[in-house]
Amino acid sequence: EVQLLESGGGLVQPGGSLRLSCAVSGFTFTSYAMAWVRQAPGKGLEWVATITSGGGGKIDYSDSVKGRFTISRDNSKNTLYLQMNSLRAEDTAVYYCAKLQGHMFHEWFFHYWGLGTPVTVSS
Amino acid sequence: QSVLTQPPSVSGAPGQRVTFSCTGSNSNIGAGSDVHWYQQVPGTAPKLLVYGNTNRPSGVPDRFSGSRSGTSASLAITGLLAEDEADYYCQSYDTGLSVWIFGGGTKLTVL
C-alpha cells in the first residue's frame, strides 16, 4: 500500500524558516518524481515544486516560491523534503507531498497524496 | 487567477448527470498536455479521479468519465450520489511556462 506522511508543519513568524518532510512507503521511491502541492485556507490547489527521480534530479519551482524554497530527496531514507526560507503570510497553507506518475512532463499527474501538514506564517 | 478556468459551482439532484468544464489555452491543453481530475472532500487530501484525459485509476467507479477536445476538457458524473459532493480540480502542464497547473476548482452540491 502506498503511503506518504508529511511532517514538520507549524506556526512560524514572517521571515522565518521551516523544513517539511515526507516519508514514503509502498513503492520504489527512487523510481518516481515527487512534488509538493499546497492549498491556502479556502483556496484551490497550487503546485509548489517538483524533483525528478534519480540522483541528479531535475528540479522545478513555481514562481511564487523560487529562490526561497528548496526541494530535495534522500533516496536512502525514502524521504522528500521542502526547505522553506523567508516565509511570508501568503505561504500559509496545507502542504501536500505527492507521487508523480507519467512518462513525460506534459503527461505527469499527482497519483498519490499525503494527508498534508499545515503551515501558518504569522506574527 | 488560474491558468485553467473552471466554473466555481455545479449542482445536481441524486441520480442526475453533471459535467465540469476546464478551459485552458494553446500552451497547455491545446498543446497536447494531458488533463487530469481530482476529487477533494473538504478537510481531506485530494484524490486522483481521472488521468490522461480519459483513464480511471482502479477503484474509481465508471460513473466518472473524462474527455478532452481542443483547449478544453470535461469531467462527467452520472448517477449522482450524495457522497459525490466535493470539490473537483482539473490539472495539466503548461509547456510555455514549464509548470504544472491546476484549475481553480468546482464545488459540486448534491441537492
Describe the structure.
Chain A has no helices and 11 strands. By secondary structure, chain A is mainly β. In chain A, strands 2, 4, 5, 6, 9, 10 and 11 form a 7-stranded mixed β-sheet that branches. In chain A, strands 1-3-8-7 form a 4-stranded antiparallel β-sheet, with no helix packed on it. Chain B is globular. Chain B starts with 8 loop residues before the first strand and ends with a strand. In chain B, a hairpin with a 6-residue loop joins strand 3 and strand 4 (47-50). In chain B, the strands form 2 sheets. In chain B, strands 1, 3, 4, 7, 8 and 9 form a 6-stranded mixed β-sheet that branches. In chain B, strands 2-6-5 form a 3-stranded antiparallel β-sheet, with no helix packed on it. Chain B is built from no helices and 9 strands. Chain B has strands at residues 9-12, 18-23, 36-40, 47-50, 64-69, 72-77, 87-94, 99-102, 106-110. Chain B has 111 residues and is mainly beta. The model of chain B has no long low-confidence stretch (mean pLDDT 96). The chains are: A mainly beta (123), B mainly beta (111).
